[in-house]
Specification:
It is built from 14 helices and 16 strands. The protein is α+β, with helices and mostly antiparallel strands. Helix 1 (15-34) runs antiparallel to helix 5 and helix 5 (138-154) runs parallel beside helix 9 (230-245). The chain binds one RNA strand through helix 3, strand 6, strand 10, strand 11 and helix 11.
RNA sequence: GUGGGCGUAGCUCAGCUGGUAGAGCUCCUGGUUGUGGUCCAGGCGGUCGCGGGUUCGAUCCCCGUCGCUCACCCCA
């Protein structure tokens, strides 16, 4: 038993798992790249206040899930729990409001949340995300939803469900929350203890309760979508029409609540039932007030994030890792084999040799395991043979022309 | 933070009502003076998570602790 293990909620990504992750990143880059998104990288940690203000003091993330510490200079630092606030910070810091709007950015990297791990949930996890800042057009709402939908489906994830809602304007949302709170208080005696405790903090959560009498109460509760008015209602109708036109299926879910304070208007989430309890693969929404909250000018924006680990869980078993093309087998000519391996690699051909002192038979076995299509057998008399590991065919080759022979064979 | 399940070889696991450990896979060697993917044989590999208790004796019972895992909360 090893004396050290990866810290709780963290994990190693082993070589055979990297290919699938790389594929997710490559595909994401292609899809968002075609839509004009440029990649941005922000620090793994930020000033704690950025998240406290940006994400919201009342959210679970800020109240109990942040990895916060003091640096040597007495500054309060937090390992980033999400990507939107940092990207907005960078937008402001680099004066991106001077660029043509909207500014389209995407990112991929690790995020940190101090939580009890479970399937699809880790303390250090990875996300891909996209943010489009500087436009309130419903076209942009539709674009980002379609991008994530395209990425997820393109990666082969099926049994995917898109839930869509709108929170309306911040003012409308606040008004609705007050109305809901009043409604809940009026029926307080029928509510479960947990729901009652959250009336002030997060009344929307009451819609998710399993408590029977609570459900009864909520069936008669006003919903946010019913309260959408004026421009908010128009905006949402337009987003829906655009998604319909694009053939993106969704279901309206007025109870959809994302646990971050900065959202307004369009809200969406992709669920996959292959994931168990943590069924959310990714989601996002519009956050027209965030930039202003961070000290910038009023700037509309929208974005999403998706969990790479959850994407991987939802995907079919992925493809195997890469392998070398040629494996050099030799009995007592390791130096010669080594020199040949170096020569092949220099020529751009993946090559390897036995590095464990194996018997001849063991070397052939390793050649097989390595996935190499060709094995080169160096004989004691200086001659060489080229063996096709797929067909088993083998022939003598000119030792001086091995690189060419292998190149020709592949 | 709360609750359930589990912690025996690198991996997956077995171990009956307590008598100081087994299998399969993997890996190495041999079966073929050298040729892999099948098969056969042998071998390497374990402080039975850790600490304490009960007992003549504990992997097996009890307590504690750490870890993993699933779920709640919430979220990726």
């Amino acid at each position: 038993m090893a004396s050290f293990q990866a810290p709780k909620g963290t994990f190693d990504v082993l070589p055979e798992q990297e290919a699938a992750r790389a594929a997710v990143l490559a595909y994401t880059e292609r899809v968002v790249g075609l839509a004009g998104y440029g990649r941005i990288e922000t620090p793994m940690f930020e000033d704690t206040a950025l998240f406290a203000r940006g994400v919201g003091e009342a959210t679970d993330i800020v109240r109990k899930e942040m990895f916060t510490f003091e640096d040597g200079g007495g500054r309060s630092i937090t390992l980033r729990p999400e990507g939107t606030a940092p990207v907005c910070r960078a937008y402001l810091e680099h004066g991106m409001h001077r660029l043509a709007q909207p500014v389209k950015l995407w990112y991929a990297g690790s995020f940190f949340r101090y939580e009890r791990p479970q399937e699809g949930r880790y303390r250090q996890f990875n996300q891909i995300g996209a943010e489009a800042i500087g436009s309130g057009s419903p076209l942009l709402d539709a674009e980002v939803v379609i991008l994530l939908d395209g990425i997820l489906r393109g990666l082969g994830i099926d049994r995917l469900k898109l839930k869509l809602s709108s929170l309306g304007s911040t003012a409308a949302r606040m008004a609705y929350r007050d109305e809901l709170r009043e409604y809940l208080r009026a029926h307080e005696s029928d509510l479960s203890e947990e729901v009652r405790a959250r009336i002030d903090l997060n009344p929307m959560r009451a819609f998710d309760s399993d408590h029977e009498r609570t459900r009864g109460v909520m069936a008669g509760a006003p919903t946010l979508l019913e309260r959408l008015e004026g421009e908010d209602a128009e905006h949402f109708a337009e987003v829906r029409a655009l998604l319909d036109a694009a053939g993106v299926a969704y279901e309206l879910d007025p109870t959809l609540v994302r646990g971050l304070d900065y959202y307004n208007r369009t809200l969406f989430e992709f669920d996959c039932d292959r994931l168990g309890a943590q069924s959310g693969v990714g989601g996002g929404g519009r956050y027209d007030g965030l930039i202003e909250m961070l000290g910038g000018p009023a700037t509309p924006a929208i974005g999403w994030a998706a969990g790479i680990e959850r994407i991987l869980l939802a995907m079919e078993a992925p493809q195997p890792q890469g392998s070398v093309e040629a494996f050099i087998v030799s009995a007592e000519q390791r130096e010669r084999a080594f020199a040949l391996v170096l020569e092949l690699r220099a020529a751009g051909i993946g090559a390897d040799l036995d590095l464990a002192g194996r018997s001849f038979k063991g070397q052939m076995k390793q050649a097989d395991r390595s996935g190499a299509r060709a094995a080169v057998i160096l004989e004691a008399d200086g001659t060489a043979k080229l063996r096709d590991m797929g067909s088993g065919e083998q022939r003598e080759v000119d030792p001086a022309r091995i690189v060419d022979e292998i190149r020709a064979a592949s």
